[in-house]
Design brief:
The complex is a heterodimer of chains A (484) and B (254). In chain A, 51% of the residues lie in helices and 2% in strands. Chain A is built from 26 helices and 4 strands. In chain A, a hairpin with a 5-residue loop joins strand 1 and strand 2. Chain B has a single domain, classed as Fumarate Reductase Cytochrome B subunit (Up-down Bundle). In chain B, a hairpin with a 4-residue loop joins strand 1 and strand 2. The chains are: A mainly alpha (484), B mainly alpha (254). At the A-B interface, helix 23 and helix 26 of A face helix 2, helix 4, helix 6 and helix 7 of B.
Amino acid sequence: MIKGKGLGLSVVALAMLAVAASAGQAREEDLSAQARQCLRCHAKEGIQATFQDGDSVPARLIPEAYRASVHGVLDCTACHASYSPKEHAKRQFRSRERFRAEMTSACRGCHSSDQLRAKTVHSGFLDRKGKDGAPACADCHEAHSMAAVSGGKVFSGEKQYCMSCHRYDMEMVCRNKEKIPLKVNLSELESFAHDRLRCSDCHYGFSQEEHPKRTFRSRRDYTVASSESCRRCHFDKYTKTLDSVHYAILSQGNLKAPVCNDCHGGHGIARVTHGIKGRVLTTQKCRKCHEGIYGIYAGSVHGKALLSEQNQDVPICIDCHTAHDIQNPLTLDYHERIPQMCGNCHANPSVVAKYGLSTDVLKTYLADFHGVTLGFYKKQREKLYKPARPIAVCTDCHGTHNIATTASSDPALVKANLMKRCQKCHRDANEQFPSAWLFHYKPSPSKYPMIFLVDAGYRIFLPIMVVGLVLQVLLHVWRYAVNR
Amino acid sequence: MRRDRDRGDARIRRFSRLRVAEHWGIILSTLVLFATGLCQRFWNLEMSQWFILNMGGIDNVRLVHRYAGVVFFLQLFSNVAVAAAGVARGKWEASMFVTRKDLSDAIQNMKYYFGLHDRPAQCDRYDYMEKFEYWTILVGGLLMVVTGAILWFPILVTRFLPGEVIPTAKALHSNEAMLIFVINALWHILNAVFSPEGFPLDTCIFTGYLSRERMAREHPLELARIEGGAGPEQPEEERKETVGMPVAKPESVV
């Protein structure tokens, strides 16, 4: 077929037509005389065809498999037209690729483009004809043992079946002309969390029998649609996402809202790990959309510790915002939960004690004016449906993503910043006003001694008073009783 | 002074209607203050939360507490003003001032209770315990008013005073409230009920009258003065057998 390609094709076509007429009968017969002649050598173990570039392929075929195949009735030259018994010895292909290309052309001598295009699975290949990485027919259908298409199962598993095509560079073209690569990296797929799944577990509707043609408006449409398949197994997470701010945005028609695949990936879905690598990786997922906030976080005391010290104790995005049911952080409900969020670590000695941080911060906040008010506002909203105004919480003084360490801060600067914060609610507050807050300190002889003395004085005086007064009553009653 | 010799007893007018009304006023305002204040002091108790939510929320409770405090302050102020005017005009004696006699009375009564003295202290219009109650609620009340005002207007206060004044005022307000609660709510009310002389309830401050018999026992010097300088009517032997001073007296006003 190297020389006189047109003639070769005609010969093959004629031969095929001749065979097709008596196919049913021919299948029962033995191999053709020519095939038997070729098999004298090509049934031997170790026989190889060598190309001009030195590469080689096995040239052996198993007579039984060939006889059982749909092409078992054909002469070898029906496909290998250039290998007539006379020409055989002189024929040598330049390379393996060249050989594959020629063999594919031979198939298409009988199987027309229209016939091939009728199967959606082929259409992608036909468009890529001649390009690098385009599959050859024999890659999927086997060269000498191809089965009938209907019911012919030649693959050991679904994954192998799908990979027989999807290992090649293929693309799906969306209506907006965006292209979606369809090549699957099997080693990547198998090294991640879903290695035991079948392709159709996620790509439902597709199987060895069915391969519906689907077109999407855009690449994003495809991503959003494909994330729907996750809920079949991860229904708990899916229902959580329904309560999230991301889903709310998506349901309003904004396709930029993240879906499962955006954070978890498509085929390379990583196993959830709670180690430092996993935590850093998680922040990078959020960063994809929230770059600005990530930048601020990375400069905060928490972000620096995570990224430069690989510290696992500091919070990452999902510790405050959660992973799936992410709430709108601008709501009052979210605002009221902030002390508890911070308290998860800052009131937990096993987390913060090693950094010399006080675990009284939550207690001192909750016991003070703001904390008590916040607690009641929360209850009032739940039980009395009473609207509440926002009350200063941790983030109002310490910042949210830009939280700085208090250790190295200049107290005067802290107070000056605090005054500005106080003035947001207490408009006339002056520079003295922030000192009304005890900065999470419990009064002690060294810190706020005046308050310490007042408390201590009453703590001593009150019991003495109670004992004295009770004694006075008892003595009086006792004397009264004795005198009577 | 009113006597009803036909019924075999004599009652002496001890408190004017104004004082009776004043006592009622103090009862009501302190009841409101204690209810709305203690639930804030012990905010994490289930009972406090129930009360606050039933009051319509913490803001309502704070509002009621503050205005009840204003009423309480007006009561204290009027009490002191009326007393001062009365004393200045020579209408009343300054009988509520603490004197050296109060100390010796207290010591004598202690001795009497332990059997080291043969009779209790002879008291005038107000005995030392009554004075103690009065001054604790007056001085303590004024402290509550001042610290309460500081907590009510923290921004105004910090214009003139350092910020630390606010938490100090809070500590004083909250601790002093407990002291007043113990002395004037628990101890005072228990005495008014369980005092052997007054059981089941000492009604003197509600009616304004005290029996002559109790006057003779509890305020012999005043009785003597009322009855024209004559000495106590009770024979010496009988006096020895009675208790010399009242512990349970609901009088807390001049």
